[in-house]
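Work Package 3 (structural annotation) set out to generate three-dimensional models for the target panel prioritized at the project kickoff. During this period the team completed the workflow that converts sequence records into discrete structure tokens, so that structures can be stored uniformly alongside our sequence database. As a representative example, we reproduce one entry of 168 residues exactly as it appears in the project archive.
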Amino acid sequence: MSGSRDAKTFARSFSHLLKRAVQYSVHCYMEEAGKSGLTHRQFTVLSAVDVHDGKSQTELVKVTGIDRSTLADLVARLMAQGYVQRRRTKEDARTNSIKLTPQGKKSLKSAQAGAEDVDKKLLSLFPASERKSLLDNLSLLAAEMDRLDDAESEKPAPAKVKLKRRPQ
């Protein structure tokens, strides 16, 4: 396949263009809100914790769309920076409750205006008459991902295989 033909294929590939749009969004975030010292994902987690104070990490996975292990790493880093606290819940000792610290609230606040400016900048690239439709359509994709996540979490855990011990 020729280079020109490859470029045309990518130029019309919805999934490729969506990936590039996400890359541009993160770039814009780092130019504006990144000055606060928070990465885009850290900002996302702090925002989710602010709105869902005291929720479990599992619930934050659902809210943010960040996978479980990445979210756990982010929470650990945010704890080390003094932005969040993690405590075991009284209801279930296996569940962690996440709360913002005063320092986390301050850091989040310092990034919020820039993050809002990024949203405005990105949406301004589209005609005003198409913005609601664009957001509605992106919401459809997000809802489909939520549906897949829900279906995955409802699957039974694989059965543990018990190994027989050999007589000694």
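The two ends are 63 Å apart (CA to CA).
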